[in-house]
Write a structure and sequence with these properties.
With 333 residues, the protein is mainly α. It has twelve helices and no strands. The longest helix has 40 residues.
């Protein structure tokens, strides 16, 4: 069977409508929340522990990814026509992977830090310093860069066609890329996910059976656990699962086999791309669990935004009412 006989999935709805609209939303919300979070973090720097180094680096990784979203929006709205050059295509895809695995790395370290502080508070108090946080942050950036760098060595456009910017690679190199993707999914996602589940499982048992913590403290810890588990399960897991399944389907098609589940996997893959982009907008919520006063600051931010929109609406209403008044005055004359 020739691969050309396989039915091609309909990409118009996802790539030309849903994805660019979602990227716009993630860019606006993520930019506001990350700027607000890092500003609040720096403003209250002396009140925080060394964990704020990890949270700050998490915000920097998100900002690096968010700055590429406007270019992807243009790309998808122009029906997958890349106009920014081959080099910047590689930079954009590299920034996405770097953000993804830096985010996973920093969230994992934040989880381990919380685990040690809750389960072994006496042993770890004062031992986790700012120097440790800086060293860990540098190592995460280096490891994520090393892990993401091979991705830019694979072609991101069809042969003799630079108007595309593939997220993975072309059909000629898809088998090699699948092996690479499976390896980085294992080391970059599966291992951190197992570490987080192990830490949180033990932490939940300790928190629920603790007689020294008050109810508010327990609730705050359990909220953070629930949020991070949901983030990994909702944003990161579907992306890695369906990305590798989609690559495997492309390998089968290149070998002349048309899998019946290709269309379903493709749709799930496109949906997972939208979900994983949400991590840049959801990660700033970690700030709320690191520093409690940020909750009040976040509420104030929402109230300020609501006041601005209310003023804009009233101003627009006043402009609309002016011509009507003039017409009534002319008719009266």
């Amino acid at each position: 069977m020739n691969a050309s006989n396989c039915t091609s999935p309909n990409i118009a709805l996802f790539e030309h409508i849903l994805l660019p609209c979602l990227y716009i939303l993630v860019f606006l919300v993520g930019l506001v929340l990350n700027v607000w979070g890092m500003k609040s973090l720096l403003h209250n720097w002396n009140k925080l522990q060394s964990i704020n180094i990890l949270v700050l680096n998490l915000g920097l990784a998100d900002m690096l990814n968010l700055l590429t979203h406007p270019f992807l929006v243009v790309y998808y709205f122009k029906k997958t026509e890349w106009i920014f050059g081959e080099g910047f295509c590689l930079v954009t895809r590299f920034c996405f992977n770097l953000n993804l695995y830096c985010s996973i790395g920093f969230l994992t370290c934040i989880s381990v830090y919380r685990y040690l502080a809750v389960v072994y508070p006496i042993r770890t108090v004062g031992k986790f310093t700012i120097t440790h946080s800086v060293v860990i942050s540098v190592l995460i950036w280096i490891l994520a860069s090393v892990e993401s760098f091979p991705d830019i060595l694979y072609p991101k456009h069809p042969e003799k066609n630079t108007t595309r910017c593939f997220e993975t690679t072309d059909s000629k190199h898809v088998t090699e890329y699948l092996n690479y993707s499976l390896s980085w999914s294992f080391f970059g996602f599966c291992i951190p996910f197992v570490v987080i589940l192990g830490c949180y499982g033990h932490m939940i048992v300790v928190v629920c059976h603790s007689d020294t913590m008050n109810r508010d403290r327990k609730r705050q810890i359990l909220k953070l656990l629930g949020f991070l588990i949901l983030l990994f399960s909702f944003c990161y897991a579907p992306y890695h699962v369906f990305k590798n399944l989609s690559l495997y389907s492309r390998v089968l098609i290149s070998q002349g086999t048309c899998p019946k589940w290709d269309s379903g996997v493709f749709n799930a893959r496109q949906a997972s791309r939208g979900l994983v982009s949400l991590n840049s907008a959801l990660n700033p919520l970690v700030y709320l669990y690191v520093y409690e006063e940020m909750v009040d600051q976040f509420v104030q931010l929402l109230q300020s935004c609501r006041q601005i929109f209310s003023r804009c609406f009233k101003l627009k209403s006043s402009f609309v009412s002016v011509p009507k008044t003039e017409q009534e005055a002319e008719s009266a004359v």
